[in-house]
Amino acid sequence: MTHTEQGAAQTPTITTVLVANRGEIARRVFTTARHRGLSTVAVYSDADQNEPFAREADAAVRLPGNAPGETYLNADAVLDAARRAGADAIHPGYGFLSENAGFARAVIDAGLVWIGPSPEAIDAMGSKTEAKKLMEAAGVPVLTNLDTAEITEEMLPVLVKASAGGGGRGMRVVRTLDELESETSAAVREAESAFGDGTVFIERYIESGRHIEVQLMADNHGGVWAVGERECSIQRRHQKVIEEAPSPLVERVDGMRDRLFEAARAAAHAIGYSGAGTVEFLANDKGEFFFLEVNTRLQVEHPVTEATTGLDLVGLQFDVAAGFHLPSENPPALDGWAVEARVYAEDPRHDYRPMSGEVLRFDFDDVVSSFTGPHVPGIRLDAGPETAPGRPAVVGVNYDAMLAKVISWAPTRAEAVGRLSGALRRARVHGLGTNRDQLVRILDDADFRAGDINTAFLESTHTEVSTVPLADDDTVSVSAFAAAVVAEADATSTRPTRHVRAGFRLFGDARTTHRYTVGQGSGDAENGVDVDVVRSSRSSGGESVTLGSDRNVRLVAVTPPDGVNRDTGTPATVILEVDGIRRTLTVHRYPGGGVGVDSALGPVMLTERPRYDDPSDIVAEGALVAPMPGTVTSVSVTVGDEVTTGQKLMTIEAMKMEHTISATTDGTVSSLAAATGDHIETGTLLAVIDSPDASDTDNQTDN
């Protein structure tokens, strides 16, 4: 039977697809489904009821609650939603139930089409320990598992890994024997939270390896494609940050691609694989590689493979599920280079602290498509949230911190990297903090540009790219001045017409002070900046200011001259002369005091603050407050304990990751305001540490 004849016979078996997921991956699957004329069904938690993916589907079914266990991990609720909405197929996306063999069986037993590999294949790869045994038997190179009781100092460092999961959750590097028990326990807790299975195993940790993976696509008739490789070596906390296709290492090492593809196909045949999957390897610079795992689902980074092959991998998943053969014996040849950057709501400068709150604006230039392409030079944007004037996107703490994937394609790696760097640098990302600055720093790094990368890139050899913002102190001051100029124009436009322009005096100069916090809200404040706007009646030069660095800034023009409406999202353009060089800055002002300033100097997010601080906002010395909302998962100290700077006090789980709260000073724990299981908000008092130095100072008297 020809492919066309098969299509006529099989396509009607899928008419309505439910996506058992959320965010950008749900929107991605809906895109292909619409292209194929299929109806779409979303499931959504209470926290997601207003998200774009829930609005875009033809039908949406509520999963009551917010926690993953009661919503997106609730197999019975998802199946009931499919029945109620009339879906005849389920696509699991990635994460949540995507690699749950029991769920796959339940879907099939319910008479629905499962758009994924067989439950048997998922089972075979569901336990990483058993998977390694299967791969070793199939001739695929593997790293051996270690017995906890037999680990010695000479074997360190080792890696604790969740057997049931991926994405860096339930994964801990152990560098001393003293940490082995506590880090293993932490990995177990993360694995139980993320995957419902706390099983972990331990293997040798290769410090400077390279993460290489092969995209598989297999049908139900024995056809297997190795659809190119990807390199995902740029990681933080064992989660990928930047991915690319092809791999710079594989391009450089003769014969490595053939060996990788052979190993990947052997892995697929060993478990009778069908559908989309990925075989992950850890490689060294010599081109040697070791099996890590098979991800029995679509990967987050699948767009770079689509961009370099022209394939629609989700469409192929539909075809395989409908019983089609792969359309040819071999996959398309690779064309050009693609790079993907993951934009996370997190602060890399503070141990990747997750950020929650409002995304006020999320705009990128040069976007040629969303969720498909690009197959011409340009940018593809796969984003979960969307913003509009007066309608910010809200990011909570219940789910993963990834906001979007930004993908570039170009004929060469240098062009693709440069295009992505430029798009990220120029993007208008306003509101809560993200890792955008870090992504640009990585892409512009000389070693990254040369392809000299490894999995330790961010954590050891290039830590500075995580801590240096794109905007330096001078740029912050210049941007704050531009914001103050617009604030003055806004104030003038709202005053009665009988008044002259604010700040004008017949003789002498007028000075107005504006205060800003860098970041959005006091919880994000890294520092504050005060700006004096000086208008002179004796000079045609207009407003000017001398910054602390002695750089002179003069206002040339502001458009519109009478201010902007915060609610419409209309920006103001401010032209400044900075040390004799003209600069154009775009200023967006938002309800609530947020101000986004974008220019070639670097992006700056500010928050307007009152001229005088409210005493109630001042945190007492020694008090530790929650840097993020979340749930307290463990408390390691009690009242009266002596602690030292950096000592672990408690852990908080937010966005499916654990975060350590440490002592900021030596002293005694005088108060504990949080207990295990407590749900907390940003700014919640957690503990108070009395410092000996502070006590000595308080007790001093005059002699």
Give the helix/strand layout.
Elements: H1 3-10, E1 16-19, H2 23-35, E2 39-44, H3 52-56, E3 59-62, H4 75-85, E4 89-91, H5 101-109, E5 113-114, H6 119-126, H7 128-137, E6 145-146, E7 158-162, E8 172-174, H8 177-195, E9 200-204, E10 210-218, E11 224-236, E12 239-245, H9 248-252, H10 256-270, E13 275-283, E14 289-295, H11 302-309, H12 313-321, E15 337-344, E16 346-347, E17 353-354, E18 357-363, E19 367-369, E20 378-383, E21 393-395, E22 402-410, H13 413-426, E23 428-431, H14 436-444, H15 446-449, H16 457-461, H17 473-493, E24 509-518, E25 528-536, E26 544-546, E27 552-559, E28 572-578, E29 581-589, E30 594-598, E31 604-609, E32 623-625, E33 630-635, E34 642-643, E35 648-654, E36 657-662, E37 667-672, E38 679-680, E39 685-690, H18 692-699
Query: Order of strands side by side in the largest beta sheet?
Result: 14-13-10-11-12-15-22-20-19
Low-confidence parts lasting 5 or more residues at pLDDT below 50?
1-12, 495-508, 521-526, 535-541, 697-703
| Tally of helical segments | 18
Text of the CATH class of the largest domain: Alpha Beta
CATH architectural arrangement of the largest domain: 2-Layer Sandwich
Q: What profile does the largest beta sheet have?
A: 9 strands, mixed
Q: What is the straight-line distance between the termini? A: 102 Å
Question: Residue share in helices?
Answer: 25-40%
Using brief descriptors, characterize the structure shown:
disordered C terminus; alpha+beta; D-amino Acid Aminotransferase, Chain A, domain 1; 4 domains; 9-stranded mixed β-sheet; disordered N terminus; Rossmann fold; about 700 residues; Glycoprotein, Type 4 Pilin; 39 strands
